[in-house]
Amino acid sequence: MAINLIIHAFFMFLILKSQSYYLRNYPHLKGIASIMGPLLAATFLIIISCFIQVILWSLLVFDFGKFDDFNDALYFSGTTYTTIGAGKQFLVPPYRAFEPMIACTGMLVTGLNTAILFAVLSNIARKNPDFEDFI
Fold first, then answer.
1. C-alpha torsion angle, residues 39, 50, 79, 2 (rounded to 10)
2. Neighbours of 117 (CB within 10 A)
3. SS3 at position 29
4. Cα–Cα distance, 24 to 118 (Å, whole number)
5. pLDDT, tens digit, for every residue of 97-129?
6. Distances in whole angstroms, Cα of residue 90 to Cα of each of 1, 73, 84, 94, 95
7. What single string gives the DSSP state of each residue in 35-100?
């Protein structure tokens, strides 16, 4: 779980760096154009980060679960990470503690993703006169 959070922290750092790069190099953009670049970059990096984390969980549970192939482990990790929990597959008893760990990591990352997107939008709104009414 710590490795996943380190990976996510790294991607959050990249999001903030990409936002500062965008604001520094494209100050002339106004209105919706000033939001789209940083927001799309942040969303893309969040998706990549979450996908990497799900793959890492899949690699871990592939050995511990009685999965027929890696795709089943990937599906299990993805549904557990997003807290959907399909319930079709499960881990064998000594390794069942990984299921709530995967779900907790996914919930924590969802909160972090919300916070970073809010920070990106707040920073844009503070620096752009088009959004004075929103701060």
1. -140
2. 16
3. coil
4. 19
5. 888 889 999 999 999 999 999 988 888 877 777
6. 19, 10, 13, 12, 9
7. HHHHHHHHHHHHHHHHHHHHHHHHHHHHHHB--SSHHHHHHHHHHHHTT----S--B-GGGTTHHH
- Under 8 Å between Cβ of 35 and 121: yes
With beta carbons less than 8 A apart as the criterion, state whether 4 and 57 touch: yes
Q: Which CATH number fits domain 2-134: 1.10.287, 1.10.10, 3.40.50, 1.10.3470?
A: 1.10.287
Per-domain residue ranges of the chain:
2-134
For residue 31, the 8-state DSSP code is T
pLDDT digits (tens, 9 = 90+) for 27-48: 888 777 888 888 999 999 999 9
Q: What is the pTM of this model?
A: 0.85
- The dihedrals phi and psi of 91, each to the nearest 5 degrees, come to -90, 155
C-alpha distances out from residue 131 to 19, 20, 35, 38, 55, Å: 17, 18, 10, 15, 39
DSSP 26: -
